[in-house]
Amino acid sequence: MEQARMTLRLPIELHLWLKAEAAKNRRSLNSEIVARVEKLQQKEGK
Question: Which of 1, 35, 38, 41 is most buried by its number of CB atoms within 10 A?
Fold first, then answer.
């Protein structure tokens, strides 16, 4: 699978929340973001 790099600016509160969720799910921050975006994509049927 091809991958793209990007810089993402987030409010600090959202960053801290995502970081905590990633730790809880034993994933990297990047993997957590990808998993959540993929889940949203499936939910929207695209």
Answer: 35
Distance CA 46, CA 44 (A): 6
Residue 7 in any domain: the answer is no
Give the total number of structural domains in the chain. Answer: 1
pLDDT at 17: 98
Rounded to whole angstroms, the Cα distance separating 14 from 45 reads 25
Q: What span, in angstroms and rounded, lies between the C-alpha atoms of 34 and 32?
A: 5
Q: What is the pTM of this model?
A: 0.86
